[in-house]
Design goal:
Helix 2 runs parallel beside helix 12 (about 395-410) and helix 4 (about 85-95) crosses helix 5 (about 100-120). This protein is of the alpha+beta class and about 525 residues long. It has helices spanning about 25-30, 40-50, 65-70, 85-95, 100-120, 155-165, 225-235, 265-270, 295-310, 325-330, 330-340, 395-410, 435-450, 455-465, 475-490; strands at about 15, 30-35, 55, 75, 125-130, 130, 135, 145, 170-175, 180-185, 190-195, 195-200, 205, 240, 245-250, 270-275, 315, 350-355, 360, 375, 380, 425, 515, 525. The structure holds flavin-adenine dinucleotide.
Length: about 525
């Protein structure tokens, strides 16, 4: 068992080997503050460690992040028959006209070196003999998905990055350390409020991950409540393309079971979708059948569920040889079995669930946001890499490549002292609670009005309901994020990528425009 698997001392890990003593100065005034300990935050920490003290904070345990749950793999053009230009073309095609070409180019070109570096740092990807094993996922024209322990890819990358970061002097990782707001000084971001106390830093990186938890049904862990987007918006940063939310077609749908993701890689290995009447329906919706783009598959499933009146369809891999599912997807197999479904012999009931945010805090290629000294990387950021729809398995790569890029840009901030005094934003710090009734109301409304199939009346209703301020501090981030999604989805009168409007089912205009929201709340397209 490796160190990360053995569990880490959760309260405080001081990599200067002086556990037990409290480096208050380092903790409350680090050079660099990284909010989030997923792949993006950890990758940035490694890059920054040589330039000063780095504090990495996580809202819950260090292991509770989307990175930990990422199953299918990480896309990279490294196989013998692949080329970065093909990876670039597939990414642009999935993004449906809205990708930033320069960002995509940076992703695919820097991807191979970034993966080799992860391997140097101890990440163990699955191999066939001594060669890396590549699998295929939907909309990839080549086998280019690396995986680890079958279906624990994110966990393995996070483990390697954690070990690397924790071995570097000056990196401090703190769990159960919730940031409620950014702190501003005269001309930019000067720190953040950590468990209610101000932390000052020369540069702050938002690496808070996604926002799936604002929806009733999601594959995302509890921490994915869009805090980074909400905090950045409150502080005045620009938010881009936030209406683009990817709904994964196949999450386990069983009473009493978690909304556990059944990776696209299962369909890549031949899993078939059937409705509850036994009909293999995808051929009626798309020539690529089960390997059609995710949004097409998700809408097809919604349509089949409506036609049959069932709350799910079925995902079936039982035709593969005995032992195949267990060996190729050990984690998925074990989880389904725990809830009574043996994937070797049975089909699993599945339904779509919110999965990935393509939009977020608007950044340039180096992670800079529109606010001085505030950077963003990983799922919270909108670099433009994913456009209107993410190509499967590109997000871990984005977190690695752009986590490093943002950190390199933050280094230039290292000598500039923040000016102070702080301006603390007026609302009180949020105390996250899972079972707040207002939370359930917002999540249900988000699913109903801003879900897979949207139309003006539902979106306008959501906007109206969210016009007032949040009913309690605990739900203010969800409230803010859903309001942003609803407003931008209402303003985008077209269907593109993952954003589907039943009242505007076609794409609009020859040039795709980004939606951008600034502090005044107006949605502008440019
Ligand atoms: C089930 C599942 C399967 C997936 N499979 C794949 C896959 O196969 N391939 C792929 O490329 N992508 C996959 N993804 C997407 C991918 O995992 C994420 O996009 C990526 O891991 C995001 O990394 P991140 O570092 O940006 O955020 P995360 O890994 O989510 O980390 C976010 C961090 O921010 C912290 N945080 C949040 N809010 C606060 C706050 N207020 N204060 C302090 N800390 C805070 C959290 O505690 C956490 O440490 C999957 C996602 C899920 C949910």
């Amino acid at each position: 068992m490796r160190p990360f698997d053995r569990g880490v001392p959760e309260r405080r890990v001081c990599s200067m080997r002086c556990r037990g003593c409290y480096h208050r100065h380092l903790l409350m005034q680090p050079d660099f503050l990284i909010i989030g300990a997923g792949v993006a935050g950890l990758r940035a920490a490694v890059e920054l460690a040589s330039a000063g003290s780095v504090l990495v904070v996580a809202k819950e345990s260090l292991r509770e992040s989307s990175s930990e749950y990422a199953q299918g793999g990480i896309a990279v053009a490294l196989s013998d028959d692949d080329e970065v230009e093909l990876h670039e073309r597939d990414t642009l095609s999935a993004g449906d006209g809205l990708c930033d070409r320069a960002a995509v180019r940076a992703l695919v070109r820097e991807g191979p070196a970034a993966i080799r570096q992860l391997i140097d740092w101890g990440a163990e990807f699955d191999r066939e003999g001594c060669k890396l094993a590549f699998s295929r996922e939907a909309a990839h024209s080549r086998n280019r998905i690396l995986h680890a322990q079958g279906d624990s890819t994110g966990r393995e990358i996070a483990r390697a990055l954690y070990s690397k970061a924790a071995s570097l002097p000056g990196v401090t990782l703190r769990s159960y350390s919730s940031i409620s707001d950014l702190l501003l000084d005269g001309d930019g971001v000067a720190g953040a409020l950590l468990n209610g106390e101000p932390v000052r830093a020369r540069a702050v990186l938002l690496a808070t991950g996604g926002l799936g938890r604002v929806f009733l049904h999601t594959t995302n862990p509890d921490v994915a409540t869009g805090d980074g987007v909400a905090m950045a918006y409150r502080a005045g940063a620009e938010i881009q393309d936030i209406e683009f939310v990817q709904f994964h077609p196949t999450a386990l749908h069983l009473p009493g079971a978690p909304c556990f993701l059944l990776s696209e890689a299962l369909r890549g290995e031949g899993a078939q979708l059937r409705n509850t009447a036994g009909d293999r329906f995808m051929e009626r919706y798309h020539p690529l059948r089960e390997m059609a783009p995710r949004d097409v598959v998700a809408r097809a499933i919604v349509s089949e569920m409506a036609a049959t009146g069932a709350p799910h369809v079925l995902l079936d891999l039982s035709h593969r040889d005995a032992g195949f599912v267990r060996a190729r997807f050990p984690r998925i197999y074990r989880t389904c079995l725990r809830y009574g479904v043996d994937l070797e012999t049975q089909a699993a009931p599945v339904a779509p669930a919110a999965h990935y945010a393509m939009g977020g805090v608007r950044t340039g290629l180096d992670g800079r946001t529109s606010l001085p000294r505030l950077y963003a990387a990983g799922e919270v950021a909108c670099t433009g890499v994913h456009g209107a729809n993410r190509l499967a398995s590109n997000s871990l790569l984005e977190a690695v490549v752009f986590g490093a890029r943002a950190a390199r840009a933050m280094l230039s901030q290292s000598s500039a002292e923040p000016r102070g005094p702080f301006t603390v934003l007026p609302e009180p710090p949020a105390a996250p609670t899972a079972e707040n009734p207002a939370l359930a109301g917002i999540r249900t409304m988000a699913w109903r009005c801003c879900g897979i199939i949207r139309e003006a009346a539902g979106l306008a209703e959501a906007c109206r309901l969210l016009e007032t301020s949040a009913p309690s501090p605990e739900v203010r981030n969800l409230h803010a994020v859903v309001a942003l999604i609803a407003r931008c989805a209402l303003a985008r009168e077209e269907s593109r990528g993952a954003h589907f409007r039943s009242d505007f089912p076609e794409k609009r205009g020859r040039v795709a425009l980004h939606s951008i929201v600034q502090r005044d709340g107006e949605v502008r397209f440019r």
